[in-house]
Amino acid sequence: MKIDTNTLFPGDLTPSATQILGQPTALVTQPVIAQKFEENFFDRSGEILGDFVDSGQLWALLIGVVIGYVIRGITTY
């Protein structure tokens, strides 16, 4: 693995759009403060929870909690 040893000055830390895209483009410097969603989070909560269970993440969470509790019980006195 090659390590890049080039030194960068603060002006070099902001890439220009020309370097990234290969063609001149205006960079957007205004941050996104808020974003509007068409759907309400609470309307989709059932779907989100169903995906959480279907993907097996619920089992990983429960196993992690149990193993963490057992390790905590073993290491405390």
Total strand segments: 0
In what range is the share of β-strand residues? Answer: under 5%
Average per-residue pLDDT, rounded, comes to 76
Rg over CA atoms:
24 Å
Total number of helical segments? 3
Model regions low in confidence, pLDDT < 50 over at least 5 residues: none
Order of helices and strands: HHH
Oligomer: single chain
> For the report, how would you describe the main beta sheet?
none
Gross morphology is: elongated
Transmembrane segments: 58-75
Keywords: Membrane, Transmembrane, Transmembrane helix
How does this model look, in words?
This protein is mainly α. The protein has a domain at 40-77. Helix content is 49%, strand content 0%. It is built from 3 helices and no strands. It is elongated. The model has no long low-confidence stretch (mean pLDDT 76). The chain crosses the membrane at residues 58-75. Keywords: Membrane, Transmembrane, Transmembrane helix.
What are the main properties of this structure?
elongated, 49% helix, 3 helices, single chain, 77 residues, mainly alpha
What does the secondary structure layout of this molecule look like, with pairings?
Elements: H1 17-21, H2 41-54, H3 57-75
Précis, in short:
It is built from three helices and no strands. It is mainly alpha-helical and 77 residues long.
